[in-house]
Please model this.
Amino acid sequence: MYAFTYQRPTSLTDAAAAIQAEDAKLLGGGQTLLPTLKQRLARPTELIDLGAIAELKGIREVDGGLEIGAFTRHAEVAHSDLVKRAIPALASLAEGIGDRQVRNMGTLGGSIANADPSADYPSAVVALKSVVTTDRRSISGDDFFTGMFETALEPGEIVKSVRFSRPDTAAYAKFRNPASRYAIVGVFVARFGAEVRVAVTGAAGSVFRADTFEAALAADFRAEALNGLSVEADGLNADIHASADYRAHLVTVMAKRAVQAA
Model:
């Protein structure tokens, strides 16, 4: 690494002030940022550690769902009795992120702000009709992710919490990379009365909704309703792990598994 100024503010106000410095970076769990610093792919002059800010932590039941602080770690979500009771699919998703070390360090806010195309949480944010609250405003989950490693966050904006709506039923299924456990394709299915939302991660540059799947499942919430349906392979990710065509195939397979689990 190289020299930088390390700060550990205890309030969101102080963090918001510190991040205004030129070339400053926010530090959550550090699962992406620290390796990036070691490789000198990023060279911030200021590193703002959010770990001492109490208002960014915790899991709370709110009207219609759950509110989870941005600095809440994956393991806390996975093991929370409240999450298991209110939205068990969210606890299951968190339990499948990375390995034990990653889950004990990584945070919800860091994951969604990084917007890795293979991350798990973006699918839950979109499928569960979430609202992302920052130190400046509230952003609909449908509008939060804008592209590969891109979000609607403005420079210096800090994620405070995510409010997830409680579905009637939901499940997440993913085909994971055996080494990293990132989603080669992950599908989160959630049903809210007559509305069904199907969010896909890992397949493209950013999470997206499968509209034709949603329509089919709204009419008949069974895995068989997806027979014959698929997403277009054009524009999907292709790498050493899976071709675009294979990812398109996996979307249907994982969607069926999610519906069966739900």
